[in-house]
Specification:
The structure holds 2 protein chains of 2 kinds.
Chain A lengths: L5 H8 L21 E4 L3 H12 L6 E4 L15 E2 L6 H15 L1 H5 L10 E5 L2 H16 L5 E3 L1 H7 L15 E5 L3 E2 L2 H14 L3 E3 L4 E6 L5 E6 L2 E4 L3 E3 L5 H6 L8 E10 L9 E4 L4 E5 L5 E7 L11 H14 L8 E11 L6 E4 L5 E5 L9 H14 L13 H4 L5 H5 L4
Parallel strand pairs in A: 1-2, 1-12, 2-8, 4-14, 12-19
Antiparallel strand pairs in A: 3-7, 4-6, 5-6, 9-10, 10-11, 13-16, 13-17, 14-15, 15-16, 18-19
Helix pairs in contact in A: 2-7, 2-10, 3-10
Chain B lengths: L6 E4 L3 E4 L4 E5 L13 H8 L8 E7 L7 E7 L5 E5 L14
Classes of the chains: A alpha/beta, B mainly beta.
Chain lengths: 417, 100
């Protein structure tokens, strides 16, 4: 790996930037690895990176059925925050935010992490109470979050219509100043480059079609579209397709997969200073560094693996956006797309062991997995390397659905997030 | 490609746009007859575990802005195409996989 530095960039300036090598090798799958990670999205790549970097496991591979970052890592609206209600959630998402803060330096790759603040709006008394409760809970857990009055909201986000005569007037908001956005593609590429430099094989175009188990029932290897790979340890980070992969090992999970849609506008000059979310009218919006307004919708209501979704879902979101920002009503939308997200009954992830020895799963991030990428990879790497969960992901077991110790962020926010 | 808006064939009203409907999730889930007799895992499966196939899936649907009646449907989750609708209480039809 050639490191990026002011010296390297300057010398390449005299060379038409032709001296840069491929950012990661085009690896062929070997016959055996110490561990295999299924899924080359942000979570899988981050896991591989931390396994190699912190735990010294370098004979490992990431198997990706398509291409790096082509799934949900490249399809989300890049929002990063950690203002979740429950302490288990606050711990894992805030762990991620701390890692985000040093990630560009850690990877020597600019992930364009921008802490421009995430503002969540309250439109009714219930929202006000719910957000204030979140603020108090967050403060107890060491997560920054503060209450803004309607006037303060307007000052922080001037494009917002705070007029009292709109359908759902703004009654204030909760602001997490350390929240923001990052460039999602760069996160995948940066982790892939970093993992590759430490010896990890990143195999693209390699779909896992079967999971082999030995006589004791433990994991023995995977069958792929590019041959058989033996390994005693498998970490599955396959997002919306986790159920499909895990079925190959005979493991059933409490997951349902839904399309989640997003869209971007034509690029315009800087008009939007922060990330703004509204759970009540269900819309979230920010502006990318290219100038596009990035807008997220809610999930479709039925199980689907179609990365497209219904048009009425995006229509509903745009109606909410136009109510809050009438000046955007004549902007043209450039693209819309969907990603398939895996949702658990309590809207918290499952991160740890499965009933099959040697098989670990990192799934159930639902509509909010991107923000957790570094933290999730960091603790999942620990789990895979040691065979035991890190204290931060220890509560996120599959067994919680049997014991009833749910981490119920669904009830906390009353929406997907 | 999936159409931007699905047509759902309500068994009582005929084809109507999906915005008139509410999906009630997986069909044919049976509540344990004697809840006290089942163990925690069986109870967890009743409450939380749902089929999540990439392929044919039996679901309950409500024609909320129409006849307001519930019915069942088999839908392909890969293409979102409805394969068949059938009344509540009838067994799931045995449809061949594949096709669309």
């Amino acid at each position: 790996m050639r490191r990026f530095s002011i010296g390297a960039l300057t010398s390449e300036a005299f060379n038409a930037q032709q001296g840069w090598p491929r950012q990661w090798r085009r690896a062929e799958p070997k016959g055996a690895y110490d561990a295999v990670i299924v899924g080359g999205g942000g979570h899988g790549l981050a896991t591989a990176y931390y396994m190699a970097k912190i735990h010294g496991m370098r004979n490992i591979a990431v198997l990706e059925k398509a291409w790096i970052g082509g799934g949900n890592t490249g399809r989300n609206t890049t929002i990063i925050r950690s203002n979740y209600l429950h302490e288990e959630s606050a711990a894992i998402y805030n762990h991620a935010v701390r890692l985000w803060e040093g990630l560009s330096q850690e990877l020597n790759y600019n992930v364009m992490f921008s802490q421009r603040g995430v503002l969540m709006l309250a439109h009714n008394q219930h929202d006000v109470r719910s957000l204030r409760r979140h603020i108090y809970a967050n403060r107890l857990n060491g997560v920054d979050n503060e209450w803004l009055t309607t006037e303060q909201v307007k000052a922080f986000c001037p494009p917002l219509n705070t007029s009292p005569d709109i359908r759902y007037p703004v009654m204030g908001g909760a602001l997490q100043r350390r929240g923001g956005v990052a460039r999602h593609d760069a996160v995948a590429w940066g982790y892939a480059r970093g993992a590759d430099a430490l010896g990890v094989d990143i195999v693209e175009g390699c779909e896992v079609t079967g999971i082999h188990r030995n006589r004791n029932g433990a994991v023995a290897g995977v069958e792929t579209t590019r041959g058989r790979v033996s390994t005693p340890r498998i970490g599955v980070a396959a997002a919306g397709h986790t159920s499909v992969v895990m079925e190959r090992a005979g493991v059933r999970l409490p997951l349902e997969s839904f399309p989640l849609q997003a869209l971007v506008s034509e690029p315009v000059k800087p008009v939007f200073p922060c990330v703004l979310m509204s759970n009540a009218v269900h819309a979230y919006i920010s502006q990318s560094d290219k100038g596009e307004l990035v807008i997220g919708a809610s999930t479709d209501q039925y199980v689907s693996y179609s990365p497209q979704g219904g048009l009425h879902i995006t229509t509903h979101t745009l109606e909410a956006i136009c109510e809050l920002f009438p000046q955007f009503s004549r902007m043209r939308m450039l693209r819309s797309w969907g990603g398939v997200v895996d949702v658990t009954p309590d809207r918290s992830p499952i991160l740890g062991k499965t009933p099959v020895p040697g098989l670990f799963v990192n799934c159930g991030w639902g509509t909010g997995g991107f923000k957790a990428t570094p933290g999730s990879g960091h603790v999942f790497a620990w789990t895979l390397a040691k065979g035991e969960p890190h204290p931060i992901n220890a509560p996120f077991t599959l067994d919680r659905f049997r014991t009833g110790r749910l981490i119920d962020e669904a009830a906390a926010a009353a929406v997907a997030h | 490609m999936r159409p931007a808006l699905l047509l759902v064939a309500c068994p009582y009203c005929g084809p109507r746009p999906e915005t008139e409907f509410h999906c009630g999730g997986q069909a044919h889930i049976v509540r344990p007859v004697d809840p006290a007799a089942v163990d925690d895992q069986a109870w967890a499966e009743f409450l939380f575990y749902r089929n999540n196939p990439k392929g044919l899936h039996a679901e309950r649907w409500l024609h909320a802005y129409g006849c307001a009646r519930w019915f069942n449907a088999v839908r392909d989750t890969a293409s979102d195409a409805f394969r068949q609708t059938y009344p509540i209480g009838s067994p799931r039809p045995d449809l061949p996989t594949g096709g669309e």
